[in-house]
Amino acid sequence: MPGASRPVGGPDLAQVRRIVSEIPGPRSRELLARQRGLVPAGVGAALPVFVEAAGGGVIVDADGNSFIDFGSGIAVTTVGNSAPAVAERAAAQLRRFTHTCFFVNPYESYLDVCEKLNELAPVPGEKRTILVNSGAEAVENAVKVARAATGRPGVVVFDHAFHGRTLLTMSLTAKNKPYKQGFGPFAPEVHRAPMAYPYRWPTSPERCAEEAAYALADLLDRQVGADNVAAVLVEPIQGEGGFVVPAPGFLSRVADICRTRGILLIVDEIQAGIARTGRMFACEHEGIRPDLITTAKGLAGGLPLGAVTGRAELMDAVPAGGLGGTFSGNPVACEAALGVFEEIQAHDLLERAREIGDTMLEFFGRLSDRYPIVGDVRGRGAMTAIEMVEADGYRVPAPDLAARVARRCHADGLLVLTAGSYGNVLRFLPPLSISDTLLEEGLSVLGEAVEKEMARAVY
């Protein structure tokens, strides 16, 4: 409230679910009214409550409501909001200097982050990294590098993909509304192949990987011409597309197709990377070693930072001045990223992500067995989802049903997010700092919401 003391976030924040007002409450409604006069209508919110503090596994709003956080700011606060190492490093850097522009006066923390990403990324051989401001900017730069290194213009992406909202990344993104409608014309030389989406593959999940790989090869060889393609860009787990985990073996087939045709493989790890899935990078689950890899979201614990890590000879193909930007690799964000790596190591957050995933997927499996509106359960580590369908057994996407379940969760103190090309997926991205108690309580809230919507669907 105005004039009142504000709660302090981080791990010391009370780890409780508490609803003391309607959602959104009076103070949030007041701020929403103010927002309408200041911010364009195109900027929305999944849960329109204004945040005062966050930490551990909770978010506290301006009305004193405390929500269990199953969103992590869309996979950004993976190590926890205001995690100690992140907050302490960023605060100390703020006192030293806030900016010089690395391309005017460099600083060591930029090198430290690049060194860490070069060490960790599953890119073969000697590596180089550049730092940027966002995931979309990372993808843009990865495409620039691929085109410069190969001298080819084409980029192949996949159905259900999301890569950003800039002109190029919007062109790479598959879903029309709300990301593309009315914003064309789009960037040229973008080609789209089917994604190996097991639940919705027309023949069967077992044939999915092979048939999707055949379709990619056919697109490259017959329609586009492999010699015209600089790179294939793929998410190891699709994010906004609905947390689609490609059919087993598909990613390795994609890598082989690229290798035999001299096409670069770019893996977009912006949502799935940085410990989210139980590995530092999600492509490691299938042993993929891409030529270029993009990161952002969870990289700096909430501060804006993205990166492209790639084979040295590719990264060095761009002439001096061809990469970078005024704010790229801001020193405060760099220190925050170093804090993220400290938190991951100190608290064994890779193992924690696996534990969270096991708990969630087991629970979702029981939901799916009990309620036919839960059509599919998928994910890896602390990146999981359920796909909501109509109760008729024909896998008809049910976006309104997913939205109602989300609203029930929000009203009962659990933040969940929707996703998917059909808008019918509930995705779950809890911070790895969440306690088992809060995790299980959140799952209970979700289970009650699904049960109530199932009853509504039947009666």
From TrEMBL:
A Pfam family this chain is assigned to: Aminotran_3
Coiled-coil regions, chain positions: none
SUPFAM superfamilies reported in the protein's UniProt record: PLP-dependent transferases
Cofactor(s) demanded: pyridoxal 5'-phosphate
Enzyme Commission number(s) from the entry: 2.6.1.19, 2.6.1.22
Entry's Gene Ontology molecular function annotations: transaminase activity
Keyword vocabulary terms for this entry: Aminotransferase, Pyridoxal phosphate, Transferase
Known pathway: Amino-acid degradation; 4-aminobutanoate degradation
Cited InterPro entries: 4NH2But_aminotransferase_bac (IPR004632), Aminotrans_3 (IPR005814), Aminotrans_3_PPA_site (IPR049704), Class-III_PLP-dep_AT (IPR050103), PyrdxlP-dep_Trfase (IPR015424), PyrdxlP-dep_Trfase_major (IPR015421), PyrdxlP-dep_Trfase_small (IPR015422)
The family this protein is said to belong to: Belongs to the class-III pyridoxal-phosphate-dependent aminotransferase family.
PANTHER family in the cross-refs: AMINOTRANSFERASE CLASS III, LEUCINE_METHIONINE RACEMASE
Protein name: (S)-3-amino-2-methylpropionate transaminase
Lineage, highest ranks first: Bacteria, Bacillati, Actinomycetota, Actinomycetes, Kitasatosporales
